[in-house]
């Protein structure tokens, strides 16, 4: 059994920011990197502070990883298969290895429901299929844009994308009854193509949709609004409370309803941005360090 001060689950922007802060607080940190973070999907981000020329997701993660390791954080390619309370801390199961930690930070993010299209991963890498209009809607100004959805989430996203272009269309692939905001879309000048996902396909640098009436329409860019699944199972197993959107509820210090269990990034309700995830991680890391200081009698209170 190996003991650390803090186990961080997830090696995206939130997890790596927290690792840097905690390592600089002189705490022992293990980051469990269970796979490719969502940030790795970013072809080029132009709203990351300090990079006016833009920077790709892989480059962001590489820089953040090197920074955390510079100060002594350990990052390992392992999955956390189980998490349990043990006294005032936690025990985590990583395959045949058990880790004890005084505190745990969940930075597990969420999983996007990408449209089931052949070649969708390559299309995301090329910027044809997109997942965040807040991140890259500016780069789509004036383009012909489609939003793929199966309910009112698609309508809300199409309305948001109208900020950037007058040529916005909702491709509704769900049942007709699932779309209740048709009047809002009509008022905004957003037409609706009702079809099945099988009638949507990628051709080179364009996305083509075939409506029920047989009309074929092509688009320069498409945003997916098919929902997400928060990766909060480990916390739920410990009894952590969820918000109305199914993500983890936290207090002002990013602590969940389970003492000593913190969360930051997309797994927490709020705005899903790299800068927000890093800010939440900084708050959580500082709160964890101060919690330890109080337990160690190292405060002047």
Automatic annotation (TrEMBL):
Residue stretches in coiled coil: none
GO molecular function, one term: oxidoreductase activity, acting on a sulfur group of donors, NAD(P) as acceptor
Top-rank taxon, per record: Bacteria
Gene3D superfamilies associated with the record: FAD/NAD(P)-binding domain
Protein name: Thioredoxin reductase
Keyword vocabulary terms for this entry: Disulfide bond, FAD, Flavoprotein, Oxidoreductase, Redox-active center
Pfam hit, one: Pyr_redox_2
